[in-house]
Each structure stands twice: as structure tokens, then as C-alpha cells.
Specification:
177 residues; Diphtheria Toxin, domain 1; 4-stranded mixed β-sheet; 3-stranded antiparallel β-sheet; 5 helices; globular; DUF3990; DUF3990 domain-containing protein
């Protein structure tokens, strides 16, 4: 068997309206993702979060859709869970300034980084700007520990977002469960 270096597929769990905006890029957002709408105080700071685990993205999409339906702000349309898939050229991904944690045990700084980012910091560690991409396990914050089998790849710069290609809605449900 010959390795062909096929694209990496990553998933982002969200709700249907946001998914629709991601697959229809605007001139101001050619890659269809707006970093300014990302939440702060996450495991790796403010960024656009994806995973290679489809089931994880589906679970996040279900949670997001449920929160939207339960929020005080009512939408004029029914909210459905949605998963957006992106393809990434692995060579282009390799050119980005990345920080990788294979597990919480392999790097002494994993929990220190998570704690700082959960307090509003960016994943920089002495740098003048954030890492383009951070990869690692998903924490069960604030209880500690990890969510078994879950991973996250967070994009923190416009340059990093440029590797996200071919956005498409891979799954949609009302909700999936």
C-alpha cells in the first residue's frame, strides 16, 4: 500500500444557521470562519475549534442546538444541530506554527496552558502572537481530567484558517440524538 497523503477531514459542531454561513464564504471572510465570534476561556483560548472525531462534533452540535432552543432569545425558525466538515492539506497544516499535546501526560505544560487559557489568555507562551494551531485532548473542565477519545484542533489566526478547505454540511439533524 502506498501512502498518498490524503487531506485530513476535521469537523465543527454547531447549529444549522451558523453552518450555512460557514459554507457560503463572503468576500470579507473568504474562508467562511470569523475568529471574532469565537468564545474566550476555552481549553486553548479563543479560536475556531474542530475535531477529527465525527461523534464528538455531533455531540457538540446537539448541545449547541439545545442551548439555542432553550435560550431566552427565540429564533423565528426551528434550530437544528449541524456538523460542518473541512478538508485540510496536511502539507499546508505542517507549515503552520503549531503546538501539539498528544495526551495530558506527555507534556508538562498541558494543564498550565489550559489553566491560563481558561482564564482568558491566548496560547502564546512568550511569543508575540498566538500559535496558529493547537492540538490536544479535551478537558472535562472544571472537574479536571479528560473526555475519553475526544480531541480538539483549534485555529487561532487568519493564516491558520486559510488551510480549511471545501466546507460542507456533513450532517444535520433536529437534533441528531
Amino acid at each position: 500500500m502506498v501512502w498518498r497523503n490524503q487531506p485530513l477531514v476535521v469537523y465543527h459542531g454547531t447549529y444549522d444557521q451558523a453552518a450555512g454561513q460557514m459554507i457560503r464564504p463572503a468576500k470579507s471572510l473568504p474562508n467562511a470562519v470569523d475568529l471574532s465570534v469565537g468564545r474566550s476561556f476555552l481549553d486553548f483560548g479563543k479560536g475556531f475549534y474542530t475535531t477529527t472525531v465525527l461523534e464528538q462534533a455531533v455531540a457538540w452540535a446537539n448541545n449547541r442546538a439545545r442551548r439555542m432552543r432553550a435560550s431566552a432569545v427565540k429564533t423565528p425558525y426551528p434550530v437544528a444541530a449541524a456538523v460542518v466538515a473541512f478538508e485540510i492539506d496536511r502539507t499546508m497544516l505542517g507549515r503552520l506554527e503549531s503546538l501539539v499535546f498528544l495526551t495530558d501526560r506527555d507534556s508538562a505544560g498541558f494543564w498550565e496552558l489550559v489553566e491560563q487559557c481558561r482564564q482568558g489568555a491566548h496560547p502564546m507562551h512568550g511569543r508575540t502572537r498566538p500559535y496558529d494551531v493547537v492540538y490536544g485532548p479535551v478537558t472535562d473542565w472544571p472537574r479536571g481530567g479528560l473526555l475519553p477519545g475526544y480531541t480538539q484542533i483549534s485555529f487561532h489566526t487568519e493564516h491558520a484558517l486559510s488551510v480549511l478547505e471545501s466546507p460542507r454540511i456533513s450532517h444535520i439533524g433536529r437534533p441528531f440524538v
